[in-house]
Amino acid sequence: MSAAKHQMEVVKGDITTMAVDAIVNAANSTLLGGGGVDGAIHRSGGPEILEACQKIAARQGGCKTGEAVITTAGNLPASFVIHTVGPVWKDGRSGEPQKLANCYKNSLHLAVDNSCNTVAFPSISTGIYGFPKKEAAEIAVDTVAKFLATTDKLDKVIFVCFDEENYNLIQGELTRLPNQ
Asked: Are 68 and 83 in contact (CB under 8 A)?
């Protein structure tokens, strides 16, 4: 499992500036842009991302919680944007942890299916959706580590944290991984 640890890193910064194959967008179910990471990606990426999202929404009616879709990255330095819809935190007993894990798994599957070697994730659902940040960090790192242990198709997964708290929590989870 040590390979997975070395394939993951955390940085503090703006996900829209990441030069990776795919950046993950914490989207809403309409796919039509919103606040937070979603709004920043749509603003920086330009109209091509919204146009691609509109086509997907017209075809399949948006994106369900835990699912993911892929589009162009428009003007971003990435090749693709993977849009995933995180769960809104209710009480932790409404399937939120599994739905959040599915966001990471389904995004990683799409990345591999589209020959991406590098992927950058935001802290999904920890903003306005209210998912507890510590639990979200545990789910993110554990889910990605398990996925990386099953494939050699991804070179690096970067957790891009806009705030210090999420950065410190992800960093703590990465240090907790076995170093075998």
From this structure: yes
For residue 117, count other CB atoms closer than 10 A to its CB. Answer: 13
What confidence tens digit (pLDDT) does each residue in 145-160 have? Answer: 999 999 999 999 999 9
pLDDT for res 133: 97
Which residue type occupies 82?
I
Closest among 158, 156, 155 to 120, alpha carbons compared: 158
Q: Which amino acid type is present at position 138?
A: E
Catalytic residues: 38
Does 2 have pLDDT greater than 50? no
Closest CA to 15 of 160, 113, 171, 165: 160
Class of domain 2-176: alpha beta
> Which pair of structure tokens corresponds to residue 102?
């599915």
- The total number of residues written for the chain in this structure: 180
Q: Is the pLDDT of residue 73 over 70?
A: yes
Tell me the C-alpha distance between 6 and 4, whole Å: 5
